[in-house]
Automatic annotation (TrEMBL):
The chain crosses the membrane at residues 5-23, 29-46, 53-71, 83-105, 112-130, 150-173, 180-198, 464-486. CDD domains: ALP_N-acyl_transferase. This is Apolipoprotein N-acyltransferase. It holds the Pfam family LNT_N. Its EC number is 2.3.1.269.
Amino acid sequence: MVKALALRIAAVVVGGVLLHLAFPPRTVWWTAIVAFALLWWALSGVRVRRAALLGAVFGFAFYLAHLMWIQEFLGRDYGPFPWVGLSLVMAGFPALGGALVALAARLPAAPVWGALAFAAQEWLQSRFPLNGFPWGRVAFGQVEGPFLPLAAIGGAPLVSVAVVAAGFCAAAFLQRPRRIVGLVPVAAVVLVLLAVPTPPVDAQDGTRTVAVVQGNAPDIGLGLFTAGRTLRANSLAETSVLIDRVRSGAVPRPDLVVWPESSLSTDGVDPAVDRVVDALGVPFLVGTNYEASATDTENAVAVWNPVTGVGERYAKQELVPFGERIPLRAVTQYLTPFVALSDFTPGTAPAVLPVAGTRVATAICYETAYDHVLRDGVADGGALLVVPTNNAWYGRGEMTWQHLAMSRLRAVEHGRAAVVAALSGASAVIRPDGSVVAETALYTADTLVEQVPLRTDPTFATRWGAWFEHGLALAGLLAAAAGYLLRRRELNRTSTGA
């Protein structure tokens, strides 16, 4: 008994680590399928409580590896508590997933229902507590694999379900290879992948030449608290280099210039920024800590026009918990250095801005983990995705590449080119099929100038993604409920001797 449990625990630990390895910067997307095959094997035939325990171990092993960048960021000052603590909290969601899988496993076509049941916990993870923490969703590890085109149909939720189903179905078939019926769900997954077309990349409403300015930031971790002037100066300096290159003919004049998140702090008045914008004669999208009033500061993207200066702006809606908004300050002062700062004021307007003759859907850094932000922006007419970000706090760890993968998936989900502008890298230009056209290195000053297609057709995921997500989660919960009722009926029959 103890030996069997130990073997199952070992399997889910390995599975959790394999799931992490599927994420960028690596390209071994298929390790996620092996991870869920191991999880299915470990959950087979166990009771709900034990399944919850195994799911928690699986989740803890995954998040401990996946969130290592938190330790690299805060470990020197706060020890392992933020990293391990968050990993433990997040492990609660796969614990729920394991319990739901154990219930759904009693149904016919159990691996498929089990995949829906497990993926239902991602719906909860994206919302609770404190508005959720959707980092590490299975779909974000699939930008190099064959599941990515599914994002255009059902967004991240469908990709996650498909990957989990592939692993569960493969394990179920290997457990009983002589049952031909076990091939049906495996074949169904393969046929679905073959039937989904490659996302189109052609322009529907012309093109725009976009310049992404990466001014660079010093690799000083928490020292960035006092580096605001340096960040602004670096962005201005790299923009001056761009102006010289445009004037010399080395690069074409862009239609739009994008500065990263937190490039400067402003109340809308900055003569130095006015000068570089006027010198190029094209509008900028500037990531800024915008002082909207004496008491309200927004993490915003502002349209900075030649001659007229600051125009419309978008304020970040999904603020980073314990970073941009601090709950329970009396407790969290021991876990985060940001407790000394005032909370940012969240935005309420849709994530879309009119600039350079088009509407641009924009999500600021962490917001790309949430489905609704860019979906709402594209639904409101966004023909191009722009993601300003500041990953400089987190050093050279994997956080940057994990975050970039989210923008690649969003490009496919909405059939739009995407531009990622990062303070210290990696900045990138992404095609509507998720492939990367150009990318900068970390901690270098650089500028990308690329022509991107504008697309206007909404994907199925853009139109119906919210309902699709809710439907998948509901199907998983109903499968678990049906499994529970089936089990109760079996127990009642046994107790009555029927």
